Amino acid sequence: MDIQFTCKECHSSIEVVPSLNSNKIQCSVCLNIDEVNFNQEHLDGILKNCPSCNRMDFYKQKDFNRKIGVLLFIIAAILSIWTYGVSLIVLWLCDLFLFSKIGNVVICYKCNTNFRNVNNLSEIHGFNHEMHDRIVYSDHDFKGEPLEH
Ligand SMILES: [Zn+2]
Ligand SMILES: [Zn+2]
Predict the structure, then answer these.
(1) Which bound ligand lies closest to the C-alpha atom of 28?
(2) How many CA atoms lie within 13 A of 99 on its CB side?
(3) Residue pair 10/32 in contact by the 8 Å Cβ criterion
(4) Model pTM above 0.85
(5) Which of 14, 29, 41, 61 lies at 20 to 30 Å from 88 by C-alpha?
(6) 109 CA to middle of ligand 1, Å?
(7) Closest CA to 8 of 28, 45, 33
(8) Which residues contact 112 (CB under 8 A, 6 or more apart)?
(9) How remote is the CA of residue 70 from the centroid of ligand 2, in Å?
(10) Cα of 7 from ligand 1 centre, angstroms
């Protein structure tokens, strides 16, 4: 499991691979040190509680790299002048293909820590707006139970 924390001081991202020997992470930009809590489950790629805020509420979404998408679009748009727009259709097909291949990223509602290569992905639900608002604005703790409707 790869973990990407957000520095509480300067909001830079800090990439970490879990290890039982380390309970501190240091931001390479502002040198602020944050406490983290890794356990054996994290080492096995099982995400039950957040190593940063200890909450159990996460959502998953497609791990789409927006910068690459924009770059590809610009290239296709330039090429379309010579290809009479065919490159834009090719780009659209590539998009469809890539989207089905793209992995998932799991995100902590409370502290926005990102997790990749999570092994219990099937237990994690998609984004829920109501849960997000209640966790972020009223500090509600769902303790890993998804909101049923
Ligand atoms: Zn920082
Ligand atoms: Zn968290």
Answers:
(1) 1
(2) 9
(3) yes
(4) no
(5) 61
(6) 20
(7) 33
(8) 6
(9) 29
(10) 5
Q: Is the pLDDT of residue 75 over 90?
A: no
Which residues surround the ion ligand 1 when the cut-off is CB under 5 Å? 7, 9-10, 12, 27, 29-30, 32
What the block records as the tokens of 93 is 């097909």
What pLDDT sits at residue 149?
61
Cβ neighbours of residue 144 closer than 8 Å, sequence gap 6 or more:
48, 49, 56, 57
Q: What mean pLDDT value characterizes the chain? A: 90
Q: What is the pLDDT of residues 29-42, one digit of tens each?
A: 999 999 999 999 99
95-137 pLDDT, tens digit each: 777 777 778 999 999 999 999 999 999 999 999 999 999 999 9
